[in-house]
Amino acid sequence: MAMQLPAQSPSVQLDYSVIYVSPSPTAAVAGPFTVGSGGVLYASAPEGGPELDGTVVAFTPPSNGGAWTTTTIHRFTAAEGTDPFPGLILGSDGSLYGSLFGEGPAGSGAVFRLVPPAQPGNAWTEETVYAFSESEGGLPIGNMTAGPGGQLYGVIGGDYSHPTSIYQLTPPGQAGGAWTRTFIYSIGINAVINGGLSFGSNGVLYVNTGNLVFGLVLSGTGSNTTATEVPVYNLASDGLSSNAPVLVLPSGTLLLATTGGTQYGQIIALTKPATKGVQWTRTNLYTFSFTDGAYPEGPLTPIGHGILLGTTFGGGTTGDGTIYALSAPSTNGAAWSVQLLHSFPNEDENVGFGPTTGVVVNQGAIFGLASLNGNTEETVGFELTASTP
Question: pTM above 0.85?
């Protein structure tokens, strides 16, 4: 990522612009964006389309200035599945993967693949990767994450007789074959996972339930995959909560934005202990003070050089949220620092407020979604670019 932040060069400023405004609450896309080739951004609208079954939307940047182009690349039907969850996974071939909460071929949601057309401008092709049935207990909830071998991992919500479980979908050995579904871990009856899943370079799948973080060490392949739980940290014991997947550093340290504990939230690090089975060590990297942001939500996005990007729902100049850069110290033991990149104006302005889904970076610009005016059901897509006066 080649973006220059103002602190690195006094001659650089960041310009905020709106690239999308939802035409209605039902057509609103939900974040985060997924970045495709050519700088195209993708997102799902859980209630988009004439039947409110959901859509996937592409945002194409202008070639020579001007407005971004918004294109609906697929409208879901009840037969395919409905209510796509935010957060799409981009495959190596340009396909998009996601999960659907309702309906579908077997009646209880599905995982889908959207295959791009061979010729630009033609229709995308929808394929069902896996269809969940009522006998499996519940519906897929939340977005998925991809594993190192092309597997997909997600959560299926339980009911009064089935536990909430984490599933693995293993791709077929040859084109046209069936994906293999394996339930690798059961969390419990009526359990929830608010934070999501993320993989580390060590092959461990980390789970953030929202108030508890633990790891799953996987062994075996396909239907023979098993998972061994590794305790990490009980956030609730410190009065903390978090609604985003952990960020796994190459060192194995976990970073995440949390609320609670302090008045306006903090960024914490969880460090692996030398002794197995012992709770990890928590370190507060940065505590927000409202003027620099409040209530950090969404994932942290690394951009290199020890810099992470994130968003807060509140705080800043008017209290309506911020985009910030968190920088690691150049000297061990020194304090981390936050640079305020953008403070959202009062919510009666038509440029968004209260971002909650983090940001993505592409071609030197920052992209994300915020709420529109006072209606949190409608969204605004924004771009933050560096310019030299």
Answer: yes
